[in-house]
Design goal:
Length: 333
């Protein structure tokens, strides 16, 4: 029997949310260098910290959505210098690489391949000394290049007959992740690995396939974390979005990507659980100074504002001198 006793629409819509409780890692990050890789959600988190010129970096491939492409990407990072002009895709006089974003391109094959190799070498150098790597998986759907058999990261708008679309199994995805862990441990034995599942909804086909894809990735991440319990940790960004921020007011206009407010909320949950008290205190104080510095008064020519500006800039410079490890001093990958 349908109840007609609801007083308004708010009564009919469940407004209760389930807080996502999770155990923070045994270790805490101290801000000595964090690398980001994976889907666009990893890019969101990176941009928030990079804007403040903190000691963070992102892999040079652009967004990487599936674990198979991630494994290939990291194998290239661990052996930089292997990209040759013959590995490139030429399209209308422009050169691309199937493992890099379409915004990464060149007009000369030799120069472009050298540029990619330099970016990989810079990425490897950063990873070798990084405190942590944060990997965000987005989908278990992959595109396999029929001629080479390679699972690509970007199709670069080639015809559909160039690729075969497949769905990774849990075993395949977990093996990809385990291979990444194994290689990372050889490069940097002490690096912490934080796995996340992107809350971005991949709805190009249908919601049912998106759910299947996310389930595959979540199970694979669980296997990866269990294999490396002291060095790996899962941060539930996906669950926070699905359970705590469940209604559409937390999404962007496309109803697939989290809104800026949602990203800020999830990032705050991440910082509070993964960062040390000292680093959290630093970020809180430092970001307040940046907001104060960027504040635009009614009269920017006033002596009061000019004095305030100089004092704030001096405080920021003092912080940088006292905490050099917190800030970026490296080239972008």
């Amino acid at each position: 029997m349908i109840s007609l006793s609801f007083k308004n629409s708010d009564d009919f819509t469940c407004r209760k949310t389930s807080a996502v409780n999770f155990k923070p890692p045994e270790w805490k990050l101290e801000g000595r260098g964090i690398m980001f890789s994976g889907s666009c959600f990893a890019e969101y988190l990176y941009k928030e910290l990079h804007t403040a010129n903190l000691n963070v970096q992102i892999t040079p491939f652009g967004n990487i959505y599936n674990p198979a492409a991630m494994e290939t990407a990291f194998s290239m990072v661990f052996k930089p210098g292997d990209i040759k002009p013959s590995d490139l895709l030429e399209k209308d006089g422009i050169y691309y690489h199937y493992m890099f974003h379409s915004l990464v391109y060149g007009e000369d094959a030799e120069i472009f391949s050298s540029m990619l190799n330099r970016a990989l070498a810079q990425c490897r150098n950063f990873l070798q000394n990084a405190e942590a790597l944060i990997i965000t998986a987005g989908t278990a759907a992959v595109y396999r290049h029929l001629k080479s058999g390679m699972i690509v990261n970007n199709c670069h708008r080639q015809t559909s007959g160039t690729f075969n679309r497949e769905m990774l199994s849990v075993d395949q995805a977990s093996q990809n992740m385990l291979a990444i862990i194994s290689r990372l441990r050889k490069l940097n034995p002490d690096i912490r690995i934080i796995w996340t599942l992107s809350p971005v909804r991949h709805l190009r086909d249908n919601p049912a396939e998106n759910s299947l894809s996310k389930a595959v990735l979540r199970c694979a991440i669980d296997e990866a974390v269990k294999s490396d319990p002291e060095g790996s940790w899962y941060f539930p960004s996906y669950e926070i979005m699905m359970d705590e921020l469940r209604d559409y007011r937390w999404y962007a206009g496309d109803l697939c990507h989290p809104s800026d407010e949602a990203v800020e909320y999830i990032l705050s949950r991440f910082i509070n659980s993964a960062f040390s008290p000292k680093y959290r205190e630093f970020i809180t104080y430092y970001t307040k100074l940046l907001k104060s510095l960027n504040h635009r008064p009614l009269n920017p020519e006033s002596e009061v504002y000019i004095t305030h500006l100089k004092e704030t800039e001096q405080k920021i410079e003092e912080i940088k001198q006292k905490n050099p490890l917190y800030f970026s001093n490296h080239e972008s990958c």
